[in-house]
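Narrative summary of target 7.
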Amino acid sequence: MEPVHDRMPVILAPEGYHRWLDPEASAEELKALLKPCPEDAFELFPVSRVVNSVRNDTEECVAPLDAAAPEGLTTVGMKAGSGDA
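Modeled conformation, tokenized:
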């Protein structure tokens, strides 16, 4: 994540979903669920500038851009990888 942003988002493992949403859970229990995401949980790849507008809500926003695309026409995007997050 560091090449894209200086902060890591919170990504809960599926086994933590129920506890996170439990209104009876204590702050300590919830803090225990906050662990760094595995490095291999994401894949970085260039995407179209279509992603820069909130008006666009299409698959094109997350579709990998052709590797041969000219510099300056892409931005870095992310998609969930094969890691267990």
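The CA atoms of residues 19 and 25 lie 7 Å apart.
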